[in-house]
Write a structure and sequence with these properties.
heterodimer, A: mainly alpha, Pantoate--beta-alanine Ligase, Chain: A,domain 2, three-stranded antiparallel β-sheet, 10 helices, 3 strands, B: mainly alpha, 87% helix, 0% strand, elongated
């Protein structure tokens, strides 16, 4: 074998960490590491993935190796999940060497988080949701601006605390506040469609789906943790909107 | 019927841009947005004819998720990537907002009942996601394994 076993262990752990960081399922993160370790001939492989840490242990040529890595930040990036899944497939099928995979992984991790572009797409999505909930052309335009400003605030709020509670609370508060302001400026518009459009993109859909899937695949601990996370962000969004509508 | 065409078309673009904002892989975008459109379409039709938002949410989510599971295995990408984009139009943002509006106007009873409706709606969606995940695991997984073996043999 060209690459040493430690490199493979490193790769397996890094892949599964990156999978969890980008919002993949727990079972997939475990499967990633397990299939890579199995592909390089390790025995008695045990991988434990939790939303906050991954542990991998395996025996190779009579020696036992263990590695642990913790996760601090989590985000949603569907493109990265797909790319990581492809890397893990290729390595386990022995079509890609360990070095290449590590390089690709590095490229993904250092990949530019095109914040501006994403904010614009997210704002367009909010605007389309505003139209979906009985908005017109003016609502489309206003919802776009409101959502864009809310995204800017979200970036600032994300630095407070390691969970998304404050970001969601602040984002939904800003959305509701700006929607009320625009309703004061243009009395004829439908304010609720702007607010709904703004909060639709914040609501924890991915967290809920992941919680269900994790629980079904037997990762009860991760499922519960993600369920609580989803509930918490839904509560924070509701509270933010409620606070701003109240006065 | 006319008042439904515009929102349902907007659904497609909402899903599309939502997928773009999460940097979804390009080969899954159009199909996933179409599934989002399909789910909301089924939801609107069922809601119109049965008047029950719960069954509409259930079948709407089912209509979006089961093809999503199938598609994910065809283009070899994790199922969450597609499921997430396709169910986003059905997420109960409207009901959550209305509940909060009632609370803000001090109509506590209406607010509480709306909140409970939101919860039941979310549970209906959860059950549908559960069923589609199980369909993927126990029906599509063996099916695609068989298909892959056949293509390798031939």
């Amino acid at each position: 074998m060209k690459d040493s076993f430690e490199e493979y262990l490193d790769l397996a752990l890094k892949l599964s960490i990156a999978m969890l960081k980008n919002g993949g399922e727990t079972y997939r993160a475990e499967e990633c590491a397990r299939s890579i370790l199995a592909a390089c001939g390790a025995e008695s492989i045990q991988v434990l993935a939790l939303p906050t840490a991954v542990t991998a242990t395996a025996e190779y040529q009579g020696k036992s190796y263990t590695k642990v890595c913790s996760i601090r930040t989590r985000s949603n990036d569907l493109g990265n999940i797909d790319a990581l899944n492809t890397i893990s497939r290729e390595v386990s099928a022995r079509r890609m060497s360990c070095e290449d995979a590590l390089e690709k992984l590095k490229a993904i991790e250092q990949g530019k988080y095109a914040f501006f572009k994403r904010s614009i797409f997210s704002s367009f999505s909010s605007a389309a949701f505003a139209v979906m909930f009985s908005g017109g052309f003016l609502e489309f335009f206003l919802a776009f601006i409101v959502a864009f400003i809310a995204q800017m605030f979200l970036l600032a709020f994300k630095k407070i605390g390691s969970i998304t509670f404050f970001a969601n609370l602040g984002g939904s508060m800003i959305t509701a506040l700006l929607a009320r302001l625009s309703a004061a400026l243009f009395p004829e518009i439908n304010m609720s469609s702007i607010i709904i459009g703004g909060i639709m993109t914040l609501l924890p859909g991915l967290a809920m789906v992941n919680a269900i899937r994790d629980t079904l695949y037997g990762d009860i601990v991760s499922g519960t943790a993600r369920g609580v996370e989803a509930l918490l962000s839904a509560v924070s969004i509701a509270a933010g909107v409620g606070l701003m509508l109240a006065f | 019927m006319e008042k439904y065409i515009f929102p349902v078309v907007a659904t497609f673009f909402a899903s599309l841009f939502y997928g773009l904002s999460l940097a979804a892989p390009k080969r899954s975008l159009i199909a996933a947005s179409f599934l989002g459109f399909l789910g909301f379409f089924v939801y609107s039709i069922l809601y119109e004819y049965t008047g029950s938002e719960y069954s509409a949410a259930f079948f709407g989510t089912l209509a979006a998720c089961i093809p999503a599971e199938f598609l994910a295995r065809t283009i070899k990408t994790p199922a969450t990537v597609i499921v997430f984009i396709s169910i986003i139009p059905l997420v109960p943002g409207l009901m959550l907002y209305q509940a909060m509006l009632f609370f803000a106007q001090n109509q506590l009873l209406e607010g509480a009942s709306m909140l409970i409706r939101t919860l039941i709606y979310a549970c209906c969606m959860a059950i549908a996601v559960t069923i589609s995940t199980m369909t993927g695991k126990y029906l599509f997984n063996p099916l695609f394994k068989k298909l892959n073996r056949k293509t390798k043999e031939s």
